[in-house]
Amino acid sequence: MTAIQNDPSLKQELISRAEEKGVGIPLLLTVEPPPEGEDKTCNLTRVLDKDTTKRFISRCKVEGVSIHSAFAALADASIVTLLVENNHIQNSYKMCNGHVINLRRYWTGDCSDAMGCHAHAPLNLWTDVPRDLSGKFWDFARTLHRDLHQHLKNESILFREAYIKLCSKKEQSYEDIFYQANPMQVDCGFSNLGDVTGLLTDDGPYVKPYLLKRHLSLHRTDIKKLCTFPFFHSFRGRLILNLLYNPKYIAEAVAQQHCSQIFDTMEKVINGSTFH
User: What's the rounded Cα separation, in Å, for the pair 155 and 153?
Assistant: First the structure.
């Protein structure tokens, strides 16, 4: 922080990088006109069976791709499929993905007693998604994986944190700071908790946890127009997806199609089948 404060050129570069925003609207909003439904957050829940979950994780390891990056690639491919099916034809599509990052990865020492949420406002990364990903899906997933992990390694997140602390008003709440750090044009957001099985209470004599659902009130944030926000994790060997969306901007039918297409594409890329 001190180095940034004492270097005006570095501070200005940091501000310029952090305030960079895309133009236009999220691509999924072009599938059909916004329904102008109730301004709220809906949650579509899908639970993958154990066998498919295991095959997906194994394929990710073979391809050298994190589960997070592979799932982001699936969501992007799903959006492209919906666009093509609705005659929005391009050779490629420029998309912005927002990745929620756990800041604990940058901590040192014993942090076992640090409780609470220590997530950074989504790291927004732009990528060109080819229309035809058949036979090229894992190459595309590796590109996402490489770009995301490059930003994690060069600590772009910490520069973003510094920007928020330097350029925000003292009277602002943390929630205000968190949400102002996001551009409005984000095609898809991602939050991955990994395997949460060990984090939950063991089975009792009468109760056995089966499902963990996560939720975020998108409609109460500055990222209202974010089309969909997949929250995903695994529990007891099953991949669980909570796909969040705001019906004011995206119709339930489109959200359902997006959700189904993610898993249809997953089955195909696991087996090496063609799609699109």
Answer: 5
Distance between CA atoms of residues 113 and 35, nearest Å: 46
The answer to whether residue 85 is domain-embedded is: yes
Asked whether residue 112 is domain-assigned, the answer is: no
Whole-model pTM over 0.90? no
Q: How many folded domains does the chain comprise? A: 1
In a domain, 259, yes or no: yes
Domain coverage including residue 253? 2-106+119-271
Instruction: Determine phi and psi for 190, rounding to 5 degrees.
Output: -140, 135
Domain with residue 28: its CATH number is 3.30.559.30
Is-contact 123 99, C-beta < 8 A?
yes
Residue 276 within any structural domain of the chain: no
pLDDT digits (tens, 9 = 90+) for 167-211: 554 444 444 444 444 444 688 889 898 998 988 777 788 888 888
Q: How far is residue 96 from each of residues 44, 55, 75, measured CA to CA in Å? A: 22, 28, 12
